[in-house]
Backbone:
């Protein structure tokens, strides 16, 4: 009754991956990062798959509310803090923790009638995206940190985010800046120490000195490798991670073409031999990347076959000349357990994170293992 | 209460664009193509914006059902036909027209208990994706076309799709093949002539010989130009088309950085001077393309400013050094009325169609002018 495309979410894989990440940081607590609709896997699946996490980290108050309504009683952390001052009331109501990432947020917090149970201050140690620079913002920090402590009646946690944790030792300079800044900041809170959190998936897996009190894995929980774009970087399978999402469809038509015939828009693929071309019900409007070149792997009825011709809005075309068993109705995996998302991403000059998070709303979701 | 990102749909623009397309093909009827969730604009907006179309063309029975429930009484066409034999019952129930694109569909139709009110046969004239080749499939056509006519008690319509209509005269060879094939096909139906449909947006705008009985514009209805990737191709504004979707957000933080400082993942952008970097609440998990290079234009509080640093999952960074009025809270247009989607697409080595259709579910939609 519908196009045969589907996104299956494997909750057992999410559970397994959380255990893998935890085993790499046995002395830290774990924020499971579920922003971006749980990296495209959906909050419902994340709620089930990450039941053993110590807390969930996300962006949006509306998502936090949904998780509380599902019954999540453990900590919830808003990674970018309040988007407007009204968010602070909701944080208090829903018992959320919040990061403070910018001066205006700090000032709103200090002046607010209601404040979150716990606050984390984000330090910018080199990412230059969100947070306070210990050096450039030193005088601002001397003003606001004591005021935040006074308003909360407690010291905030300390957080930073790595720009290059996936590359060799890329975390080290930022860790050093963080550790160098911390004593003065703790002193501004009367010497009260409080938790620190630095490590994303890459640092959790490869940099124990960064683990601190809470790690914050994201991509690894969903079965992607943070090292996939590095030369000789470890693949998800080598890390013991399993695919959280399996993106499938079927062959809906087969064309038999002659040498010299072109396939699809712009006639990009031109057959060198008599060829069988399978048409698959999946296109860029489903989230399959339009820039996928000829040769991008697809798993078709048990073996890998190469993309042939430009990705259309609703269809892709695959060369099944060497795969006579493939025909109308054959199952296709676009990425998932047979074909790692990172492999597809590499062909498309992107990362698995983007492919996972950009499967569009028109693709039906099915959750397994909840 | 939520991230400030939003997708606004301008129904007046959809209405206007339909009138523009119709004016280019005054003697043809118009199928407004609303597949892929109306190119990302939503069926509700399409229903309102294309009320004057002669019919709507789409992929999925579920979407056709939704449009009937909204009150659409005019023709609805399933562009890829039945995905399984059960679809034929739904087509009869919902009074849908269907394209037949492959042999198995034709055989299911001929054997079906209930059939659609009208059927179109898709001819493959060079796209080599869906449809029957008049030459290679000649004997198959001689078998199934009379059987289809007998089963329907009527002749089917004839359809094809252009692979290169956007390039200079790219439609011409395919049109010639279509016209050459038609007399023999009509003869197979006892000489009964029936409607033909060939033209997508590009052909509707630039190739009157292709207009025939029904044109099938898609991208033009939403304010995109089909010629955007051609050298000196006409832009949407030059074609009199208006943006159907306006994708906006806000600056949520500003970093002041020193010469030599890097921004974001992989430290891709490195400041050549003391710089102000605006952080915008929009990332690849919203559908903003991750491969956008430094320099990709953003409209920030009244002027164009360049992207600086790699697109993150939830944030992008923009160089606002030369724009002192831009600050936390400043409005940002990612694409839309100020910044054509085709311009952004060109920087990202893709087409506006992909950007329009891949804005993700987490972005709130607002419909104007319905």
Residues:
């Amino acid at each position: 009754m519908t196009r045969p495309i589907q996104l299956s979410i494997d909750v057992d894989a999410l559970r397994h991956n959380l255990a893998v990440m935890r085993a790499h940081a046995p002395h830290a607590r774990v924020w499971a990062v579920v922003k971006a609709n749980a990296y495209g896997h959906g909050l419902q699946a994340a709620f089930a798959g990450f039941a053993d996490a110590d807390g969930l980290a996300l962006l949006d108050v509306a998502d936090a509310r949904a998780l509380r309504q599902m019954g999540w009683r453990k900590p919830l952390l808003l990674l970018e803090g309040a988007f407007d001052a009204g968010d602070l009331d909701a944080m208090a109501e829903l018992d959320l923790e919040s990061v403070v990432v910018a001066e205006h947020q700090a000032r709103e917090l200090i002046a607010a009638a209601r404040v979150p149970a716990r606050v984390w201050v984000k330090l910018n140690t080199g990412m230059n995206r969100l947070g306070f620079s210990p050096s450039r913002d030193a005088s601002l920090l001397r003003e606001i940190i004591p005021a935040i402590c006074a308003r909360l009646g407690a010291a905030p946690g300390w957080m930073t985010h790595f720009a290059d944790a996936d590359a060799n030792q890329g975390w080290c300079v930022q860790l050093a800046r963080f550790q160098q800044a911390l004593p003065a900041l703790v002193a501004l809170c009367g010497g009260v120490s409080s938790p620190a959190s630095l490590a994303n998936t890459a640092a959790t897996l490869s940099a124990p000195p960064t683990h601190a009190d809470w790690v914050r894995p994201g991509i690894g929980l969903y079965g992607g490798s943070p090292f996939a774009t590095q030369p000789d970087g470890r693949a998800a399978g080598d890390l013991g991670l399993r695919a959280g999402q399996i993106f499938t469809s079927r062959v809906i038509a087969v064309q038999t073409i002659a040498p010299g015939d072109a396939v699809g828009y712009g006639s990009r693929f031109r057959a060198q031999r008599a060829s069988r071309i399978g048409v698959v019900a999946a296109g860029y409007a489903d989230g399959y990347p339009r820039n996928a070149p000829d040769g991008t792997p697809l798993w078709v009825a048990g073996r890998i076959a190469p993309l042939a011709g430009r990705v259309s809005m609703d269809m892709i075309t695959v060369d099944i000349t060497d795969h006579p068993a493939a025909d109308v109705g054959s199952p296709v995996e676009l990425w998932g357990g047979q074909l790692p998302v990172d492999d597809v991403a590499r062909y498309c000059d992107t990362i698995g994170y983007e492919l996972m998070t950009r499967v569009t709303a028109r693709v039906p979701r099915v959750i397994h293992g909840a």
Q: What stands out?
A: Chain A touches chain B through 73 residues (CB under 8 Å). Chain A has a mean pLDDT of 95. The two ends of chain A are 26 Å apart (CA to CA).
